[in-house]
Amino acid sequence: MSFERVRIADGDYVKWGNLVKAWSKGTTPKPTTLDEFRSQCNDADIGISIPDYVSGVEFVQREKETLLVRLPSSEMIEAAEGMLETSAYTLPRFYKDRFNADLHVPASQRLDFQAQRIGDYTITLCM
Q1: Angle between helix 74-84 and 110-123 (nearest 10)
Q2: Rounded to an integer, what distance in angstroms lies between the CA atom of residue 117 and that of residue 30?
Q3: H or E stretch including 54?
């Protein structure tokens, strides 16, 4: 089983991050519908691809005193694990641009690297 993922155009991660920060700070109202979400991304000139199976948008904002553990869907993890058995692990280009490094993940390390990224994603604060 394979799932298309939400994708941000490589050159648009700064604009995307700034929009996320504006929602978080309350300087831009959070969209309440997927159409509003698309419109705000379009207004911010963010190239975003949202799969057809996505039908809504939900924001979860925690206070610093609460540990929020974000869990990805089991279907998405299983699909990624299946894909990683035969396909390269891809990272956004800004990692290469920032660290000037080869981002190739050897096949024998893909599932461990995926686990590291998921683990980091679930609890990382905004750094």
Answers
A1: 150
A2: 26
A3: none
What is the spatial distance between Cα 20 and Cα 56, in angstroms, rounded to a whole number?
17
Would you state the structure tokens that stand for residue 80, as one six-digit string? 């990624």
Q: How many CB atoms are located within 10 Å of the residue 98 CB?
A: 8
Both tokens assigned to 107: 């096949």
Tokens of 100: 């000037």
CA diameter of the chain:
44
pTM, entire model: 0.81
pLDDT for 30-71, tens place per residue?
999 999 999 999 999 999 999 999 999 999 888 889 888 888
Count of all residues that appear for the chain in the document:
127
Across 13-30, average pLDDT:
94
Cβ neighbour number for residue 116 with a 10 Å cutoff: 11
